[in-house]
Write a structure and sequence with these properties.
65% helix; 0% strand; 9 helices; Tetracycline Repressor, domain 2; 196 residues; DNA-binding; homodimer; mainly alpha
Amino acid sequence: MPYLNKTVSLPEPVDCRILTAALDLFVEHGFHNVSVHDVQKQANVSIGSIYNHFGGKEGIAKALYKHLLNEFQEMIDSVISETRSSRECCNRIIARLFEYTETRRNIMAFLLHTKHREFLSGEPPLCHSSPFAAMRKIVADGMAANEIRSGDPWVMTASIFGGAIRLIHLRLDGVIDQPLPGYYQQVIDNIWKGMA
Amino acid sequence: MPYLNKTVSLPEPVDCRILTAALDLFVEHGFHNVSVHDVQKQANVSIGSIYNHFGGKEGIAKALYKHLLNEFQEMIDSVISETRSSRECCNRIIARLFEYTETRRNIMAFLLHTKHREFLSGEPPLCHSSPFAAMRKIVADGMAANEIRSGDPWVMTASIFGGAIRLIHLRLDGVIDQPLPGYYQQVIDNIWKGMA
DNA sequence: GTCTATACGCTGATAGAC
DNA sequence: GTCTATCAGCGTATAGAC
């Protein structure tokens, strides 16, 4: 069930229908404002099936989280493999994130705009997940290669991606009404050239 | 009941005890994982008092939100009044936010690290509140005065404050274990000089 | 204004037929 | 594996004494 790369919608298996319904509902109303009955209704399956497949509401969220995190990681990997310089790598990641915010809004919202800690017990925070670790590694490599000014890895990574992530939040909140890719060049310039 | 400026803890009135208890619980467990009974217990008041004062759980959250937003606004105003240039103004706001993250953690967490939309019905998003509007105005003034490179106000504001806000999130999540003020100079340099 | 006791709807979860 | 019917507990909110 490839979410990030899905292009056509075939008659999907049951567990995929459940995950898709849950994703949409969780993003629209928030995890705690969605009942298992809501998911069951929207996915056109019975409650029994949900418990058979995922063991409960939190099980759905956990499966969703792991799945989308994997696809996020694959996106990062693909960018790394097709890019040489660290700076260009950061830029392309931002470009991809901006695109995905437009084309796969709910996935971005669930990954970047959700307090997972409030309903995913035992999961480490998102910023400790492998895709984010990969982003910090890119920055660290860039600092080692003198492409990026030296500093604390967490701080430098936050400074590079923070503006873009903030824009994604604003866009997901409906505050910005233009597609993010239109701001790409401006954001990139701000990062590398500074705001002065 | 001055939260942001509170220095001593006197015998507080009932509604203040309720708000303080709710703030701590909401931040620690999340709004939906806290029951009115939890607040009642922690505040040492009865359920009846809570409903008399705030009308319910959402009423508590709404009162808390409005109150803290006001104090946030006062902080911004005080920075504006003591600063001349727009750039210096942005810097001082970041400095204050970093300080508050250390000294008034729960207030920062409730304001900046919470999805208010999931439980505050009818409230506009935080970024439309007056303090955030004031921050955008500072940036707009800076662009008009050629202190800040020109561009879309939302994008430029996100680029200036995005890195700092991201660091605050990471600090609140317990990912960064050093006090944020120690990173202030580095963050400021990244913003104005760029990362290259 | 404050408190205790209570009502009642909703939700997560299970049992058991098919 | 899928479904329906049902349960048990929690959590909001109210009623009414003090």
